[in-house]
């Protein structure tokens, strides 16, 4: 009876809804969803219509068929092996932006306007670099986790060692080469250490933390600048950490050019983005669209706050020594390697580069997301033409360090455009030749080897402890069986039990 009820039900359903008969449903009806009086039969269940609530006419609809990711346009072209080309292209774009900002002057004295490099890359290139660092952390910690999260602990240990190495490289470069720009590597090291507690969080928790820090930390930085408890250090030397530790820590966290208290937001957003399926077309389009929306929102909120809600007047009258030209300079060019005045909270409405305000964080985060989404989408169409950016993005640590050393020649002050062209050509040629013999750049290889060695020892120690505990448990089980008399002697008939060993009496002295 049950075998005949199933086809009758399907025929009746198709006859009542003939307009849906040719559509391919998403999946079969789950068990326990049969009509009253009909029992399930063995084998695959018949497919039928399913109500999803998408139509207002009261008719049932079919669920959409699951799209195949590999059938999306340009899916195979965006990979090089198992590596997404778009991530390397985005890193290369961020590196070129930072090099251009450091090389080309920010202000054109002839036209009295900002340069194109400053408008496009100031604050945005370094924000994209920090966001991609968070994406890399997510990809690094995406692997399988063992018992009690041992894999996550080893990854945290590895990231902590990398942070110390980055800090050491940044300090050595700043100490032995007097660079005319501020080095971001020590700040990155602190950001990596601050990111360790967030590696095991979910995407919603990361979003809440990122929004909370973006709102609160600009006020904390404003208070530190207002009271100014320690001197601001932007050039970190080898002995400064021992001579003025509190001033160095305050600069790294709050008052420096790239304070970790606010720049950790970029890494948290990148960590959240790295948990997504970045090879999906829908995710890439969403990054482009939502990034553009965030960038417009940050700029619009800052513009309205300054020019329509009294921010301009409060900034102008906050201090008698502040002139109209200086206020306009701060609004247009941002901090420009200077600190924003802390005389009024109205200065927190500025969204210019390196101001570390809430509006600046929203704008630069949106621009970074938009750039990442655009790079991922372009790699579906023209990945071969973006090979130069991908080459540069595969060795960002080595090339950025070489860029800092090159700036000590001060050639960019006399011939800025020639200096930029020379750095790009030499860097591309070096990466191309190096990659033909080695998989990683020189500094990348050193950091990977040194940071990977202690976690390997830790994993080996854990394996030894696990095997030792297994042997102890095996000996315990064997001793229990001997004690209860479960073992039989060899050659004894079935059912015969080995007698327990006689106990020895302890002799006592009388």
From TrEMBL:
Any matching Pfam family: HGSNAT_cat
Keyword presence, Electron transport: no
TM regions (residue ranges) = 84-104, 116-139, 159-178, 184-201, 208-227, 247-269, 281-309, 358-379, 386-411, 417-435
Under InterPro entries, the record lists:
Bact_Transport_Assoc, HGSNAT_cat
Q: What is this protein called?
A: Heparan-alpha-glucosaminide N-acetyltransferase catalytic domain-containing protein
Domain Heparan-alpha-glucosaminide N-acetyltransferase catalytic: start-end pairs: 83-286
What does the UniProt keyword field contain? Membrane, Transmembrane, Transmembrane helix
Low complexity biased stretches: 490-502
* Keyword Transmembrane attached: yes
From which residue to which does the signal peptide run? none
Q: Where is this region: Disordered?
A: 1-47, 463-510
| Composition skew (Basic residues), residue ranges | 469-484
Which residue stretches does the UniProt record annotate as biased composition, category Polar residues? 1-19
């Amino acid at each position: 009876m049950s075998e005949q009820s199933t086809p009758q039900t399907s025929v009746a359903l198709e006859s009542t809804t003939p307009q849906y008969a040719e559509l391919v449903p998403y999946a079969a009806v789950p068990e326990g969803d049969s009509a009253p009086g009909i029992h399930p039969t063995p084998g695959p269940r018949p497919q039928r219509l399913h109500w999803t609530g998408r139509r207002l006419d009261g008719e049932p609809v079919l669920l959409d068929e699951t799209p195949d990711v590999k059938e999306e346009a340009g899916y195979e072209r965006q990979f090089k092996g198992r590596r997404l080309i778009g991530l390397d292209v985005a890193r290369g774009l961020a590196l070129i932006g930072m090099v251009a900002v450091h090389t080309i002057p920010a202000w054109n004295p002839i036209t009295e306007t900002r340069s194109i490099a400053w408008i496009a890359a100031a604050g945005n290139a370094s924000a994209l670099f920090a966001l991609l660092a968070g994406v890399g952390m997510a990809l690094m910690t995406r692997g399988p986790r063992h018992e009690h999260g041992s894999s996550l602990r080893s990854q945290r240990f590895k990231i902590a060692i990398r942070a110390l190495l980055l800090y050491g490289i940044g300090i050595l470069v700043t100490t032995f080469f007097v660079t005319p720009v501020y080095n971001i590597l020590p700040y990155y090291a602190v950001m990596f250490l601050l990111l360790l507690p967030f590696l095991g969080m979910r995407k919603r928790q990361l979003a809440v933390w990122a929004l909370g820090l973006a709102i609160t930390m600009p006020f904390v930085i404003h208070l530190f600048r207002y009271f100014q408890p320690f001197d601001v250090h932007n050039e970190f030397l080898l002995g400064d950490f021992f001579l003025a530790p509190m001033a160095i820590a305050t600069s790294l966290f709050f008052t420096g050019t790239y304070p970790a208290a606010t720049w950790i937001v970029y890494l948290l957003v990148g960590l959240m983005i790295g948990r997504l399926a970045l090879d999906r077309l829908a995710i890439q389009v969403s990054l482009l669209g939502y990034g553009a929306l965030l960038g417009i929102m940050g700029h619009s909120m800052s513009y309205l706050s300054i020019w329509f809600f009294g921010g301009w007047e409060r900034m102008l009258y906050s201090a008698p020594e502040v002139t109209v030209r200086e206020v306009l300079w701060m609004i247009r060019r941002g901090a420009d390697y200077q600190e924003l005045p802390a005389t009024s909270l109205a200065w927190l409405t500025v969204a210019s580069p390196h101001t570390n305000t809430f509006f600046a964080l929203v704008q630069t985060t949106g621009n970074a997301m938009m750039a990442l989404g655009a790079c991922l989408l372009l790699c579906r169409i023209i990945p071969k033409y973006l090979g130069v950016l991908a080459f540069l993005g595969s060795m960002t640590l080595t090339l950025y360090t070489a860029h800092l050393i090159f700036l000590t020649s001060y050639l960019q002050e006399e011939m800025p455009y020639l200096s930029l062209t020379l750095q790009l050509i030499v860097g591309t040629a070096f990466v191309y030749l190096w990659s033909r013999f080695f998989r990683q750049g020189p500094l990348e290889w050193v950091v990977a080897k040194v940071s990977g060695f202690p976690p390997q020892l830790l994993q080996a120690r854990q394996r030894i402890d696990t095997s030792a505990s297994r042997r102890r448990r095996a000996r315990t089980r064997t001793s229990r069986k001997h004690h209860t008399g479960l073992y039989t002697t060899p050659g004894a008939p079935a059912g015969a039990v080995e007698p327990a060993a006689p106990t020895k009496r302890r002799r006592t002295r009388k």
